[in-house]
Amino acid sequence: MMLQTLTPSEEEVMQIIWKEGQIYFRDLMNIFPEPKPHQNTVSTFLKILVEKHYLNVEKQGRIYLYRPAVEFVDYRKFVLKRFLENYFNNSGGELFNILLDEELITAGDFENSIKSRAVFATKPKHENHIQDFIKEITSDKKSKKKEKDKKKKKDKKK
Q: Could you state one GO biological process linked to this protein (predicted)?
């Protein structure tokens, strides 16, 4: 599914819903900071967000429950990619240099990030010591059992 850009007002509604996880219209209105938008305006934003596939809606009696259909992490990646396309010629390096120049990050932050990624990449994907132990025990028993069976057959032949 291709994500569509959100207006600042639509994004404000989504920020609240992402934070809450799921929400009813009345609760959404109560959470909105002052000055609160008109109910019809918020209702229209919700309708648009459903049409843009950002929200799933479930009717419960006479009220609706709204849940995010797009995770915040996915939206954040989408926005960052568009930001890089529009302002940095798809260059993460250009963005990084500006972040360094403006002292929004430090070289140490970058080094720590690289180190943590390297440690994560070198860890085995799936460690399950219990399964390994069970395999070791059962495989060893099978081979010992086969050896015992062979000895019994030899002894019977003699």
A: negative regulation of DNA-templated transcription
